[in-house]
Amino acid sequence: xxxxxxxxxxxxxxxxxxDAGSARGRxxxxxGGPSPAPTLLIAVYTLAYTLGLILWLPFRLFRYLRGHRPxxxxxxxxxxxxxxxxxxxxxxxxxxxxxxGEVNSIRPLIDALNLKSSQLCISTTTETGQRLAxxxxxxxxxxxxxxxxxxxxCRRYLRSLDPAAVLVVETEIWPGFIVAAHExxxxxxxxxxxxxxxxxxxxxxxRRQLRPFLQQLDRLCMQSPQxxxxxxxxxxxxxxxxxxxxxxxxxxxxxxxxxxxxxxRIRSLFGADPIWVCGSTREGEEEQLLxxxxxxxxxxxxxxxxxxxxxxxxxxxxSDLLRQRGLVHLKxxxxxxxxxxxSPVRPEVLVLDTIGELACVYELALVVxxxxxxxxxxxxxxxxxxxxxxxxxxxxxxxxxREMAQAFLEGGAALQVRDSGELARRLRELLGSVAARRGxxxxxxxxxxxxxxxxxxxxxxxxxxLGPDAAS
Length: 472
Fold this sequence. Notes:
Layout: H1 39-65, E1 93-96, H2 100-105, H3 107-113, E2 120-124, H4 127-137, E3 142-145, H5 151-161, E4 165-169, H6 175-184, E5 188-193, H7 197-204, H8 207-214, E6 219-222, H9 225-234, E7 241-243, H10 257-270, E8 275-281, H11 286-296, E9 304-309, H12 315-324, E10 329-331, H13 335-341, E11 349-351, H14 358-362, E12 367-370, H15 383-387, E13 392-394, H16 402-410, E14 414-416, H17 420-431, H18 434-450, H19 454-463
Helix pairs in contact: 3-19, 5-6, 11-17
């Protein structure tokens, strides 16, 4: 059993390049670094957070009664058991990836770090993220839910796991956790960080309150120079904040027999018919996609559609919508049984009501639409479709992926549409032109190739916190 973490800050332990205390640009307690966050500020935050959870309970109950199953609070209060043996030279990492997008983004980083299962912990906040993390990393890491943001609870997690450092993916700023880690001398490193336009506008009103917590982060590895400038303006220490690129550009799809079997089943279901894949769609968006589908169907009667909602729990509502439109459809979860039954009716729409399978389905697409962009959600990741060299369509709302969308649009690797009418027009053009599809797909792969490298840069920074015996 690992001995309980001592209150002496770990940053002062050990020596040498691999020791956490030698990380460049990081203050050591008592050596001129930022002072701890004010006690009153922490107390006010903790009280506000607790009251917020209490006030949130009726809304959680309402959503539960409507079929949504949020992660129970108790699952975020179960302290993971201590490891049976400690890795040498303090080489354990805790990586927090809130949901599906973040879990997917860390795949190339986890591969590059190549740590043993006793050296890696991965937490998520959402149930969908947890399921994907367990599917991708079940034999490579300990996987659990991130704790509720009470400092006392976060300290218990940190003492039990005893990590050399915690990597927080994108911009998950949890003051209670940051304070607890700082008190125990555990470095917290923000990786693949970004500040969207909407988040920046909100955070600016709170920058005086955010500054003490941002200054307790050891390093901040941001996706773009603009993201770096924004978080420095919000209060992070400039010498510890860098632009290293976007991990998602280093995406690779590992061979998976299960996913290969799925693509064969879908191809068998649809035969040689062209397939339009609409990925990560959001509420209020499916209606517009189906409007476009209906408009072009007379010209392309063989066109089939794969509709992949961002949250599979919405698949029942989507099925109702498809029935109202008179569209023959099938859920992916029923695909095997449908084929075994040998039904003579070929579905027009397949609803992908599963987690972690969208990437491989993109390979089948003639054209791709990336969701969350026809409604004011902010868009989703374009990389998985670009990996297969597919022509990509997006809506006008891509602010959560601002830099990526700009690179694709300016590089002739994606087309942006304003509404369902323009979507139908662009879709018609692409379905009717092999050259247009090939041009967009070729440019998408070029954008991907030109922007790789964030994983290597991030690994070099993370390596400063690992002992010399860590895998490489």
